Amino acid sequence: MDSLITAAAQALAAGDPLGALDRVALREDAPALALRGIAMAQLGDLARAKALVRRAARAFGPKEAVARARCVVAEAEIALASRDLGWPVAALDAARQVLEAHADWINAAHARYLGIRRLLLIGQLNEAQDKLAQLDPATLPPPLRATHELVAAGIAMRHLQAQTARAALARAQLAATQSAIPALLAEVDSAVRMLDSPVAHWVTQGEHRPLLLDEVEALFTSTSLVVDACRYLVRGAGMSVSLSKRPILFTLARTLAEAWPGDVPREILIARAFRLKLSDESHRARLRVEIGRLRAALKPLAGVIATPRGFALVAPDVVLLTPPVEEKHAAVFALLSDGESWSSSALALALNTGQRTVQRTLDTLAAQGKVQSYGQGRARRWLTPPVPGFATTLLLPVPLPGG
């Protein structure tokens, strides 16, 4: 490896892409192409970065397996940054095995972290946590230690473990400072701001106030009955009842929680649950059936009683927890609020829904001027500025069936 390639690689490792380009911008050999691709990725030109890295992988000879594997890892990182979550994971795993076979432990660990970050983005938290536990950050350089702690913090946030997340972010900040890479420091600072932003709203007896993640965690360990409109659960007494697949029951539970300790007239319950403006005796009979089902579902946690004009929720203390930003397409906004550009296929994968459904949602939001796109065809990406002061990704709503 010549001195210019070495100097460019060192500049990239230090977070100086412009310094790297100064040394290899006019070169077309395989190592230079790979370094140029990584530099362009660091500068945010992901499309050109992807093309350069692929050219480099093809330019390396058959005996340069490690170099080709590093290119695959670089391409996987570019795909992750551009939210191309459908990128072939098997290729990344094969590259990692090659790197481990040649004792390139640092790049192999980097490949593992890319896979874990992808799992985190698509909501496979348990698998991500298991894979992260297999890695020891103590033997890694500062940039990878910071990455490890950022992933750990992301998992803790989504498990509503605020103190664990804060401790991980403190370690990430220390490692990022040791790395002296501005982009990494900015990523850690962004995660800290997200943790300090409201993640939900607390509603009880007509009062509203925003909650931080720490407060949500404390609420879930309290004696209150919590109707969780972020995850479509009812929690209390150390137990939880999921109503994510029973949208009518959850709508009834939420409506009753909003009115607690008072009752809700039957006409309002019918309008909210069945989306009907007028009601007759058949609708009232259907309401009685659904209330019976709700009463059975909540029996370990709370009661539902009939009143002269409707129904009421019976519990010592009831709190309704709602997302900080509520609208029909809140789940899409929650993902786009990370400030990165997403493909419609990646959004569909993360939301566990159909790509056509996501595309219709994006078209609707684009017509309203709420999101914007760039690129064409498979290269098309969607983005929106994050909502100031709200970390909606921490309590990502699960779409209700038929919602």
Structural summary, described in words:
With 403 residues, the chain is α+β, with helices and mostly antiparallel strands. The chain has 3 domains: 3-195, Tetratricopeptide repeat domain (Serine Threonine Protein Phosphatase 5, Tetratricopeptide repeat, Alpha Horseshoe), CATH 1.25.40; 201-322, Orthogonal Bundle (Arc Repressor Mutant, subunit A), CATH 1.10.10; 330-395, Arc Repressor Mutant, subunit A, CATH 1.10.10.10. It is 56% helix and 11% strand. It is built from 18 helices and 11 strands. The longest helix is centred in the middle third of the chain and has 18 residues, at 162-179. It starts with a helix and ends in a 20-residue tail after the last strand. Mean pLDDT is 85; it is low at 386-403.
Fold blueprint:
Blueprint (H helix, E strand, L loop, with lengths): L2 H11 L3 H8 L5 H13 L3 H14 L5 H17 L7 H13 L3 H17 L3 H9 L8 H17 L3 H18 L2 H14 L4 E5 L2 E5 L1 H8 L4 E4 L4 E4 L2 E4 L4 H13 L3 E3 H9 L6 H18 L4 E4 L3 E5 L3 E5 L7 H7 L7 H8 L3 H13 L4 E3 L6 E3 L20
Parallel strand pairs: 3-9
Antiparallel strand pairs: 1-2, 1-9, 3-4, 4-5, 6-8, 7-8, 10-11
Helix pairs in contact: 1-2, 1-3, 2-3, 3-4, 3-5, 4-5, 5-6, 5-7, 6-7, 7-8, 7-9, 8-9, 9-10, 9-11, 10-11, 13-14, 13-15, 17-18
